Amino acid sequence: MTPGSHVGSLDRRQSVPDVTRSFVRYACIVSLVAGAVVAWLVAAGDWRLATSEPGFWLLAAFVLVGELLPIEVPRRGTHDVVAVSTAFAFALLLYFGVGAAIVVYACASAVVDTLDRKPAIKVTFNAAQYALSVAAAAAVLAVLGDAAPVEGIGAALPDILVAGVVWFAANHVLAGIGAALLTRSPVLVYLRRDLAYQGWTAGFLLSLAPIVVVSAEENVLLIPLSFLPMLAIYFGGREAAMNEHRASHDALTELPNRTLLRQRLDVGLASARRRGLSVVVLILDLDDFKAVNDTLGHHYGDLLLTQVAPRLRTALRQEDTLARLGGDEFAVLLEDVAGSTDGVDVAERILTALERPFEVNSLSLDVRASVGIACFPKDGYDADVLLQHADAALYVAKDSARPYQVYAAEEDAHSIDRLALAAQLRRGIERDELVLHYQPKVALRDGHAHGVEVLVRWNHPELGLIGPDGFIPLAEHTGLIKPLTDYVIEGALRQRKEWDELGLLVRMSVNISTRSLLDRELATTIARLLRKYDLRPDVIQLEITESKIVADLGRARSVLGELRAMGVTIAIDDFGTGFSSLSQLQQLPVDEIKIDRSFVTSFHTSANDAAIVRSTIDLGHNLSVHVTAEGVESDAIREELAALGCDYAQGFSLSRPQPAKECLEDLWRYMDGFGRANGDGPVPARAADPPQDKAGTPA
User: Fold this and answer.
1) CATH of the domain at 201
2) Cβ distance 88 to 61 under 8 Å?
3) Do the strands 78-82 and 540-545 form a parallel or antiparallel pair, or are they unpaired?
4) Residue 699 counted as domain residue
5) Which one of 192, 622, 624, 678 has the minimum C-beta count within 10 Å?
6) What is the mean pLDDT of the chain?
7) pTM
């Protein structure tokens, strides 16, 4: 009898844990008792098989068919199984006696179990408990004066009903104890579980037996007709099971879905509370999976997920639950474990399993994941809290670039604050709470303002001014990066139009994230905004962090190429901190590289950093791209960079990031002699020179 299943045998179409020592002892006792009972019946001569009668073979055939084709009944996220063989085995007892019923029922069970490759101890136990159930029902009939085979079904019907109850009770107790021992569950709790449902289904099947016998007495050919309603129930049950499976499983990967995971988690927690064990939940998310869908198409993403699911399964035990929560997010439920260390072991096995590239339609794709881990009872006492804490741990893992993270309360408080902040960010964008600051970029050849880098801040109504590190990662993880990027680009172009009317022509450099870079609507959005403000494409430059481009060079090259074809210039920010090779850099459609401030600030104190700066300047010029040095903190460094041929400089010694009004003053200061007549304010005699390329033509 499977956990929660019908009256019947162990393992009926479900996975039950391997045999335990206690079950082996119990199965041996049941088998010995069954053997003794059968031997006594043979010695008593109560053993008529009636093999010469067609009715015997018809009933035997339907017992075997009933064992081979049990009816699956969907219940509580799993399948209970109802075998119609019970009705025909009981009919055999009533029509041909105890010997025929035991032989046919036990042999049919052994044949099916052997075909299912069950362990020998389970095959023997199932046959033995069937034999004892039949013998118990036969004994009741004999005590009540209607020994099998029963003469006069109508008159003996009350006794038959009592015998049916005993049949059910014997089978339920014998198989239930075995299943409880296998699953290490309390026996009484297991036997009480779904008792009403088990009694109802068993009663229905056993009550069909007298009808089958009456039909056989009239004409044995009516026996097959009595099977037809059961066959209809079988197909109906199979259809219901399929519908339930579709409702509780993911259609793409065939894994349990969120609903079924929650049901199993509730059951697992109840068992863990009784037995004093732990339950661990892992939630894992594939890194940058959206890039696969956006670049290769959702078909490739689906094909990749169908390969990821079985790879994850190889890292788990047979009894562990692997579920797909949606998109590229999966969950793992570990029951009967010692603690969170088991979750860490599983997380490491999962990450190892994903290290080998996936082949999707001749494309080799690398997949990495982040994992959050929460453990009952340490990290939560109910399902909702446990799932929430595993999700919070996942967020911390992704935010800190760690492969996995065990839930920690002190980090969760921070995560909850940040998640609450993310919920307010959308409203902040809609309410125009974001402000743009601008930092001038100065041409080192003549000291004129070449452009400005646009930096976004969030003027939170309660927390004050929040820097980009406080909310940009949240925007990336919550799907707000697109409206945020659109907001910044439009604000930058609107400001450029205002300065344009003053005769101040500078290029606006806007930082964008990798997720924005893979947005297919990015080029369309920029083109629309340029038309809205009547500006040329070369007034805007997009800056992308080097390491994030190189992580997906092929896709980056395609998107950057489209933008550059429009006339938008591209800069690689924080150059030198990533892992790009020269060949990769040469393939990218790049107009400018920006040396990371960490090398520039230590230019005079670190010979290695100075060498990197000089080499990067030479590299940029050899590749015909402009070079900007970030973090210029002194006039001495600025002068030496100019001597090395560096094109542009940014840094606090030149100007700090400021609101537009304050930045305008610095911009006029760096254009003295062109756009400022005296100290009374901007009276532009001529516009600032537009950005020039190395040949002196407009960039």
Assistant:
1) 1.10.1760.20
2) no
3) unpaired
4) no
5) 678
6) 82
7) 0.47
